[in-house]
Amino acid sequence: MPPIIQAENVSKIYHIGKVDVPALRGVSFSVDPGEFVSIVGPSGSGKSTLFYILGGLTRATSGRVLIDNVDFAQLSDSQRTALRKSRIGFVFQKFNLLPTLDATTNIEIAHEIVGKNGRIDREHFDRIVGLLGLQGRLHHRPSELSGGEQQRVALARALINRPALILADEPTGNLDTKNSNIVLNMLRQSNQELGQTVLMITHNPEAAAVGDRLIHMRDGEIVD
Q1: Collapsing DSSP states into helix, strand and coil, what is residue 205?
Q2: CA quadruple 49, 54, 59, 60: dihedral, nearest 10
Q3: Among 96, 120, 145, 181, which is most buried by a count of CB atoms within 10 Å?
Q4: Alpha carbon of 132 to those of 27, 138, 192, 210: distances in Å?
Q5: pTM listed for this prediction
Q6: For every one of its 224 residues, what pLDDT tens digit does the chain have, with 9 covering 90 and above?
Q7: CA distance 184 to 131
């Protein structure tokens, strides 16, 4: 079975005025289906830039990324969007919830965006909500939720369609210890019980230790 993620000599250079600023310097690695991989490094190491390239949200300057053996660079914008919708669940540090919608609708909207036919799987919905401890908060809007609750809603949204791959960018970066543990345990359960591949970006070594394998980055390169 081919890797679900294959990064080959990926580089990214930002042009700031007349200055070229390298964010990634020839990064290569792979992730097999069913793995939980943590990419850890300090701020400025290039890990978030790598996250956006792996998710097809921005383009590499050189090198290539394959998701399920499909080269992102060979896809049109609409094809990349379709691949993201069907195969990838995103968890962002800033939650990205829609402020006018309650928690239930923020979760369910992922189902609608993908264009799945039929009603949402209520058993699956209830299981995720229960594991994340959101049962009593489903009719609240983001402004009525704590930061930890908002991140749990964002995680539920990422999981609701059972994506093959979950990409999480600093999912515990703004959370206290209790909520960090809830989010990390849910990612671990999704990996172990549902077979979902998880790639998590973090600067926190304790959070990174939840993964099966650690990739250390510094100054745009993999160092270990």
Answers
A1: helix
A2: 70
A3: 145
A4: 34, 11, 16, 17
A5: 0.90
A6: 789 999 999 999 998 888 989 999 999 999 999 999 999 999 889 999 999 999 999 999 999 999 999 998 888 888 888 888 888 999 988 888 999 999 999 998 887 665 555 577 888 889 889 988 899 999 999 999 999 999 999 999 999 888 999 999 999 988 899 989 989 999 999 999 888 999 999 999 999 999 999 999 999 999 98
A7: 12
